[in-house]
Amino acid sequence: MYQCHPPKLPKNWPTDVLYLNTPYFHPSMSDDALSFVRGGSSKRTPLPPSPHSLGMIRPIMDRSHPAHGQHGLFAARKISPRTLIVEYIGEVHSDERPTSDYDVSLHRFAGNGESIGVDASNMGNEARFVNDYRGIRPKPNAEFADRRATGGDLRMGIWSLADGIRKGDEIVVSYGKDLVTLTWRAPYESSYSIFAVAIH
Ligand SMILES: C[S@@+](CC[C@H](N)C(=O)[O-])C[C@H]1O[C@@H](n2cnc3c(N)ncnc32)[C@H](O)[C@@H]1O
């Protein structure tokens, strides 16, 4: 089963979103795409769980915050530079998700153009609460970067930047493009961008 609930859900986890600690592979993925992401296997069996998140979900009460009324991810402790904060876990898929605000691009094949994303709109983990830095902090303190995890699969992670992050600070990344339109698709050469972001 993919629905791997931890013994206790993270504080402030929404009731209408399934918590996952390992990726769910959506049927839209071709066997070739699945094999690429899984590092040689096209099985749909569960992979090792994601490491514990160094961020905690908090509601944003500050009225001057651009995501006031929503949630953000905040450092649960001091985070050293270049440290994995949380893996971006969700539905790994190849179909279009034009209305999702939680869809991160993982890989695009040059040959057939198949594009793999990780969508955390209906299921995911703490990473889905990371906001874009604009209007919040002068610059990002974290970034998206992918790597092969212990099970050999390709996973997107959120990593601290060179300055590290103080305990209690909001963890913010760059979504990678001007956030002026409701939805947009990131350039394919940038595989680390959230590509369907709504800023209201
Ligand atoms: C991946 S979610 C981030 C978590 C979201 N705040 C929540 O509580 O579910 C992306 C959404 O967060 C909001 N958001 C993220 N960064 C923002 C920013 N800098 N300014 C305004 N809204 C932002 C937008 O509504 C965006 O569509």
TrEMBL record:
Top-rank lineage group of the source organism: Eukaryota
Domain (SET) ranges: 50-176
Name of this protein: SET domain protein
Provenance organism: Lactarius akahatsu
Lineage of the species this protein comes from: Eukaryota, Fungi, Dikarya, Basidiomycota, Agaricomycotina
